[in-house]
Specification:
Alpha-Beta Plaits, 4-stranded antiparallel β-sheet, alpha+beta, 17 strands, elongated, single chain, 13 helices, 22% strand, 9-stranded mixed β-sheet
């Protein structure tokens, strides 16, 4: 009876897996699960926007099918771009990276699940991809060649686990996908594609395995017109907010890529009220990414907090784009006016009322309210993402106080979902936040 429920079909399979998931969960399981969940919320919509169907998932993996190999590859490219955009403000040890494998092949269908070599080949190709990269089979290549503009490496014939025949493989090169630390790669990709257990391989194939980069090329063909765009996906839900916010981001930060805008819009839409989004002006930094805040007590507090946090993080005034669902009007000629926030430039004596973006109850916290009268040696550190202030008092010397405050801030940053660096806020009773110091200001005692 079970065999009667099995059907066969030809389809394109995409398999994605988080790089170093075990290491990430060992370091911080709660953060990793939350972060992967946030990424999945974005990439699942990308897959659906390319007419894909997710048919299986694991803790760190995604399996999807597409009727079109072209749409599968487009989806994978947008997938990786969105993940890279989300990583922009994360420290190096908190980068969520995926490998992706794509294969076009015959599969068995059972109760919506897909089985067989068509799926297995895609899974094996995923292991050959670089972190942040995409590896496709020759069958997929045959269908995208002439339709997409993308750099690639011809990896030649690959012998992969539990597949009796060699599989032709191509690695697609996407932006900085190759620029990852060696310890994030697991087994090096070029070792994985150069097995010595196949003496019958021809010399030309063996040379391709040893030096696949020699086959680097570029498919220089225009992308087919009328394909899926980001705005098609943005129209799928809450069109007024998402489309309007996407337009504001495109106007205020024209250097921001479409996938990065998409990721920012999706992330903002999922945040709890009261929330706000701001952006540094284009040219303020090489890695412009909008700054958000959420779960604030009031809309006014969210507005103030996002502008102050954005200015502290980027070191330049930012433009306000949206507060809750109230999108700001589009200025004529894209002439956005950045709003300078005075508390980010405050240099006087420590005053709880001058802490940027702080929650109302922070100023009443005992260590903050009593900081000015606390004994030396003392220092305070500040994190614009969490809008928190960290205090160290009664230290052995001034430098130790500064290092202890920064350490407390950075340790909390690693435990939390916050992004952006920690800054030294006060040295003794003097506020030094405008200096944007990420290390101790006072020299070590001699």
């Amino acid at each position: 009876m079970e065999e009667q429920n099995l059907q066969r079909k030809l389809t394109t399979i995409l398999v994605a897996d988080v790089v170093g998931f075990s290491r990430l969960t060992a370091n911080d399981e709660d953060w990793t699960i939350r972060a992967v969940g946030e990424v999945r919320a974005i990439v699942d919509e990308i897959i659906r926007g390319h007419e894909g169907r997710i048919f299986n998932t694991g803790g760190d993996s995604v399996l999807a099918e597409f009727a079109s190999p072209v749409e599968a590859v487009r989806s994978a490219v947008d997938f990786q771009a969105a993940v890279r955009a989300r990583n922009l403000l994360n420290p190096q040890d908190r980068q969520i990276r995926y490998r992706i494998g794509i294969n076009l092949g015959d599969v068995l269908v059972r109760d919506g699940d897909l089985l067989g070599d068509g799926v297995n080949v895609a899974a094996r190709l995923e292991t050959l991809a670089e972190p942040g990269g995409i590896c496709i089979s020759g069958t997929v290549w045959d269908h995208i060649h002439g339709k997409l503009t993308i750099a690639y490496v011809d990896m030649g014939d690959q012998f992969v686990k539990n597949i009796p025949r060699p599989v032709r493989a191509f690695h697609l090169r996407l932006g900085d996908s190759h620029a990852v630390p060696a310890d994030d790669r697991g087994a090096p990709a070029r070792e994985a594609i150069a097995p010595a257990a196949k003496p019958s391989a021809t010399p030309s194939v063996r040379r391709r395995r040893v030096a696949p980069w020699l086959a680097l090329g570029v498919v220089a063909v225009a992308v087919a017109a009328g394909g899926w765009t980001w705005r098609n996906s943005l129209r799928s839900a809450e069109p007024s907010l998402k489309e309007a916010l996407d337009a504001r981001l495109a106007s205020a930060a024209p250097g921001m890529s479409e996938p990065a805008r998409f990721a920012a819009v999706q992330q903002y839409a999922a945040l709890p009220e009261h929330k706000a989004l701001a952006s540094p002006t284009s040219g303020a930094t090489a890695a412009v990414y909008p700054w958000n805040t959420s779960a604030r007590p009031t809309s006014d507090n969210a507005r103030e907090a996002v502008l102050e946090g954005c200015q502290v993080n980027y070191g330049t005034p930012c433009v306000l784009l949206v507060v809750d669902n109230d999108v700001q009007p589009m200025p004529a000629n894209d002439a956005w006016i950045a709003q300078d926030m005075p508390r980010t430039r405050y240099r006087g004596n420590f005053n709880p009322a001058e802490i940027p973006g702080s929650w109302p109850d922070l100023r009443e916290r005992s260590d903050i309210a009593g900081y000015a009268s606390a004994p030396d040696f003392k220092a305070a550190a500040y994190h614009p993402g969490g809008m928190s202030t960290y205090v160290a008092t009664k230290a052995a010397d001034q430098r130790t106080a500064e290092l202890e405050a920064l350490k407390a801030c950075n340790e909390d940053l690693r435990r939390s979902r916050g992004t952006g660096p920690c800054f030294l806020y006060a040295v003794g009773n003097r506020v030094v936040l405008p200096l944007r110091l990420q290390d101790a200001m006072t020299a070590a005692p001699r």
